[in-house]
Design a protein that fits this description.
- The complex is a heterodimer of chains A (177) and B (290).
- Chain A has 177 residues and is of the alpha+beta class.
- Chain A folds into 2 domains: 10-79, Alpha-Beta Plaits (2-Layer Sandwich), CATH 3.30.70; 89-176.
- Helix content of chain A is 32%, strand content 23%.
- Chain A has helices at residues 18-30, 59-68, 130-138, 149-152, 156-176, and strands at 10-14, 36-38, 51-55, 75-79, 93-97, 101-106, 109-114, 120-125.
- Chain B has 290 residues and is an alpha/beta fold.
- Chain B has a single domain, classed as Ribokinase (UDP-N-acetylmuramoyl-L-alanine:D-glutamate ligase).
- Chain B is 41% helix and 18% strand.
- Chain B is built from 12 helices and 11 strands.
- An 11-stranded mixed beta sheet of chain B has the order 4-3-2-5-1-6-7-8-9-10-11, with helices on both faces.
- In chain B, strand 6, helix 4 and strand 7 form a beta-alpha-beta unit.
- The longest helix of chain B has 19 residues, at 246-264.
- Chain B is globular and about 45 Å long.
- Classes of the chains: A alpha+beta (177), B alpha/beta (290).
- At the A-B interface, strand 6, strand 7, strand 8, helix 3 and helix 5 of A face helix 5 and helix 6 of B.
Chain lengths: 177, 290
């Protein structure tokens, strides 16, 4: 899988599931690799994915660590690109106040809760299959008792909803004070 | 005939193909029954809206192809395989693709297979199907997308592979300068011929030209209600599948969805299933007013 790296500066690990990419990021960072994360190149992109890059000379060692940790690798590609387009979620946040309810929007995901009780009343947006599942599991429950999206979901949409959930928890804390 | 496809949040990882019926409480796909809770979630909301519209207008009931998928792609893979290998035998004239895990190989195989259909169906995409269409550079293989604010800024940003990668300059204007975002989406071939952009104002677009905008009735609390975009997609899919002109179908769907919302007298805590029950009445009223 990982050959022909000569001349390239970075090696990109690609994963079928976003959740595997998140786990790989955590594992490789913990193992001391110089990693960077971001969108895969357009020619291999699926849309709901995250690539992890390491210096090309480290590709075999990194691949060994991922295999030892049972993290499935979809593919490895080599690139001259030092930087990958980063996730922008910290800059993609909007709030809409509906009186008794507050809607938090992060990227394409919206989470709305009742201010007084913290009960999640609606989840909207997204396109991946775990979003309807998260709707079933989270709606009707207070923010502090609902399962978190990153405990249930596998995709970048679920990760985006996690960020909306975290903003909602922070906002609810302020409302309660 | 209209074929609606999408994943469902259920454990059963088998393909289910059947005629859709909605009785106001439960959704039926063939002999399988999905309760009210499921109707408020994703593809089932779209299917219930489509079935209601077809019944109201005495159109042929839509066909569904669904599979359980909890986010790991197994049901999505079944759907891509069905679309590639079997969907042509349905004789569908319109196909709407909805919630699905973006899987490059499966998606591209289906898109390439469309060229071999005896008569190419009218292709509609929303949700995950729109994400994979853009990520693979296949937007022009579709005829209509139905993006909301978070999705039109994604289509406008030529480098974003997912709404989470959208540059903040696009996100900042996604409800205030939609015409610019529409223009950018077409400029980089990231839109099909038709768009219905859903938002505080709905934009109906043909080849980059805004044909209609719809702002009334203005029901701001529809925005947080999950599924209110899916119901627009369901209504227009039913109309296009029933032979309506795409622009007219978009116009009716956008107006009827707002009217159904108004009739339901919603709050941000309303579930979309309550709104779907007014769709038949709203569609009829809008068509009668044209």
């Amino acid at each position: 899988m990982s050959k022909g790296a000569e001349g390239y500066t970075r090696a990109l690990f690609l994963f079928e599931l976003f959740k595997d990419a998140m786990q790989a990021e955590h594992t490789l960072r913990k193992a001391g690799f110089n990693i960077k994360t971001g969108a895969p190149p357009p020619e291999v992109r699926t849309g709901c994915d995250l690539a992890i890059s390491v210096p090309s000379q480290d590709v075999n060692a990194a691949e060994k660590v991922l295999k030892e940790n049972d993290i499935p690798i979809l593919d490895v590609v080599f690139t001259f690109e030092e930087e990958l387009p980063p996730l922008q979620l910290s800059q993609l946040v909007k709030r809409v106040d509906f009186g008794n309810y507050l809607m938090i929007r992060v990227g394409n995901m919206k989470l709305t809760f009742e201010k007084k009780s913290g009960v999640i009343v609606n989840i909207s947006g997204g396109g991946c299959p775990d979003i309807p599942l998260l709707g079933l599991k989270m709606i009707g429950k207070p923010l502090d008792k609902a399962p978190q999206p990153n405990e249930v979901g596998y995709t970048l949409c679920a990760y985006t909803l996690q960020k909306a959930y975290e903003h909602a928890v922070e906002a609810w804390k302020k409302v309660k004070k | 005939m209209l074929l609606l496809t999408g994943t469902l949040p259920i454990e059963e990882k088998t393909l289910l193909v059947g005629t859709i019926k909605f009785d106001g409480k439960s959704l039926y796909i063939g002999n399988k029954v999905f309760g009210n809770e499921m109707v408020s979630i994703g593809a089932t909301a779209m299917m219930a809206a489509a079935a209601t519209t077809c019944e109201t207008l005495q159109l042929e009931p839509p066909l569904a192809a669904v599979a359980g998928d909890l986010g790991q792609g197994d049901g999505s893979t079944l759907l891509y395989t069905y679309l590639t290998e079997d969907a042509s035998t349905t004789g569908a004239s319109t196909i709407t693709m909805h919630y699905i895990l973006p899987i490059r190989k499966g998606f591209m195989e289906f898109i390439e297979m469309l060229d071999y259909w005896e008569k190419r169906p009218f292709m509609i995409a929303d949700a995950g199907s729109m994400l994979i269409a853009k990520a693979t550079g296949s937007c022009k293989k579709f005829d209509l997308f139905t993006p909301d604010a978070g999705e039109i800024c994604f289509l406008a940003d030529p480098e974003a592979g997912h709404p989470a990668y959208v540059k903040s300059m696009f996100f900042a204007i996604d409800t205030t300068d939609v015409p610019y975002l529409i223009q950018e989406a077409y400029k980089y071939n990231n839109a099909p011929r038709y768009l219905l952009v859903k938002g505080p104002t709905d934009f109906i677009v043909d080849e980059g030209k805004i044909i209609y905008t719809i702002s009334e009735p203005n029901i701001p609390v529809l925005e947080p209600i999950g599924g209110t975009g899916d119901t627009i997609t369901g209504i227009l899919s039913a109309l296009i599948g029933g032979g309506y002109d795409p622009i007219k179908a978009c116009l009716i769907a956008a107006r009827a969805n707002r009217l159904a919302g108004q009739l339901a007298n919603p709050t941000p805590a309303t579930r979309v299933a309550e709104i779907i029950n007014y769709i038949g009445k709203a569609v009829k009223q809008v068509i009668d007013s044209l």
